[in-house]
Design goal:
Elements (H helix, E strand, L loop, with lengths): L16 E5 L6 E2 L2 E2 L3 H10 L3 E5 L7 H12 L13 E2 L10 H4 L2 E5 L3 H11 L3 E3 L1 H7 L48 E4 L6 H13 L29 E4 L5 E2 L7 E2 L1 H15 L9 E2 L5 H13 L25 E6 L2 H10 L7 E7 L19 E3 L2 H11 L2
Bound molecules: SN-glycerol-3-phosphate and magnesium ion (MG).
Length: about 400
């Protein structure tokens, strides 16, 4: 019989373990939900087990992702607490970046430029520029059909009336730049760009530039007396990639390229441009990076403490200390390189153990050539249902 929800006291029955669910290849493939996923989520929600959705997907808002997750799983509108405030996207940790960084001029590129900008603005990046803005500001920037009617139709003027054509005629000259020359401080690749050609061109241009001014070329490039043979040594913007997944899982039988494939293409072009003389310097977020796991861990510990199942992003969360400490977090994923590797390598300071569980519904398939995954999980199971059953048994 139901006695209702127990009070949040020290001796309640809430669990000391939690789940981190990967999304693509674990909860659904494209539009197709993994059978039983919805029921398992309902059940762990009812049991007040803490969980988050930790995906390398991005290019959308966390709320929009939660809505589409609920829809694809077939949850009803009154079950929104099953997904609400639990989605961590590849770029979500950037919400926590310092304000002075958010005031910099950033080039944001992702699936849809205008959506990416809106999310960046919502995160607090007030000066977010998209590749669409650049081609509209300077029609010489890209010599080919650049999808101005479709993908890049929406644009905004560059911040503070800056111009993308403020560089001197000689791109190598150290002459003063026009006062209105746009300077990009950071490049944020938020997920799989749709127009690789334009994005590789623009990212290249910024990485070879002097100080992040489009249309200039640093005379330090190729200087062997400098680190990295002078490449990316002249105040060029930092390049941030929000995840490095080479592939991900949809309904199509063959794995689909992810953001990591775009990075591989960029690295290939970079190797050609630098004559093999320089490694592409970049920073990556997303699984398997420690930063992302730390973010997820902190969210599990703070946001989903017992009794704080509602609210969004407020300071009032995280004050409830009545939940038992989390001893184990089960990371259920389909990608050994990101989900499993990240969980295996993550050792939170509070001593919590992250346990990796690999499912067979996603990118990883056992083949004759590959006896086992490169990064070994604690267990390999058929799907997310078996993963939860295994974890619950493991907890006794
Ligand atoms: O673009 C999404 C993909 O890279 C992986 O998503 O949920 O499997 O981490 P997920
Ligand atoms: Mg996945």
């Amino acid at each position: 019989s139901s006695l209702g929800k127990p009070p949040a006291t020290r001796d309640h029955a809430f669990s000391s373990f939690a789940f981190a669910f990967d999304i693509d290849g674990v909860l659904y493939r494209g539009g197709q939900a993994i059978p039983g996923a919805r029921e398992m989520l309902r059940s762990i929600r009812r049991k007040d087990i803490r969980y988050v959705f930790l995906t390398n997907g991005g290019g959308t808002h966390e709320t929009a992702k939660a809505d589409s997750l609920a829809k694809r799983l077939g949850l009803s509108p009154d079950e929104e607490d099953v997904v609400r405030d639990r989605v961590i996207l590849s770029h979500t940790p950037m919400r926590g970046w310092a304000d002075e960084v958010k005031q910099q001029t950033v080039l944001v590129t992702g699936s849809h430029p205008e959506t990416a900008r809106r999310i960046a603005n919502e995160y607090g990046f007030s000066r977010a520029v998209t590749p669409a803005d650049l081609i509209h500001a300077n029609d010489k920037l890209y010599p080919f059909d650049n999808l101005k009617e479709t993908l890049h139709a929406e644009f905004r003027p560059l911040p503070d009336g800056k111009s993308a054509a403020g560089a001197p005629a000689d791109p190598y000259s150290r002459d003063l730049l026009a006062a209105d020359a746009l300077k990009i401080d950071k490049i944020l690749v938020w997920n799989d760009p749709r127009d690789w050609s334009l994005d590789i061109q623009v990212i290249h241009d910024l990485l070879v530039s002097r100080g992040g001014h489009l249309g200039t070329v640093s005379d330090r490039n190729g200087d062997r007396s400098l680190p990295n043979n002078g490449w990316q040594q002249d105040g060029q913007p930092e390049l941030w990639i929000s995840n490095l997944d080479l592939v991900w899982k949809t309904e199509f039988p063959v794995n689909r390229f992810g953001t990591g494939a775009f990075v591989a293409a960029l690295q290939g072009v970079w190797a050609a441009v630098t004559n093999g003389g320089a490694e592409l310097q970049y920073q990556a977020l997303g699984k398997p990076s420690r930063f992302t796991y730390e973010y997820a861990h902190a969210r599990l510990v703070r946001d989903h403490a017992v009794g704080s199942t509602s609210t969004s992003g407020s300071e009032s969360r995280g004050k409830d200390t009545t939940a038992p400490p989390i001893k184990r977090v089960y990371m259920i994923g389909d990608n050994p390189e990101s989900d499993i590797r990240g969980a295996n390598e993550f050792r939170p300071e509070d001593g919590t153990e992250w346990v990796s569980v690999l499912v067979r519904t996603g990118v990883w398939r056992q083949t004759a050539a590959e006896k086992g995954p490169r990064y070994k999980p604690a267990v390999i199971v058929d799907d997310v249902v078996d993963a939860i059953v295994w974890a619950l048994r493991n907890e006794g």
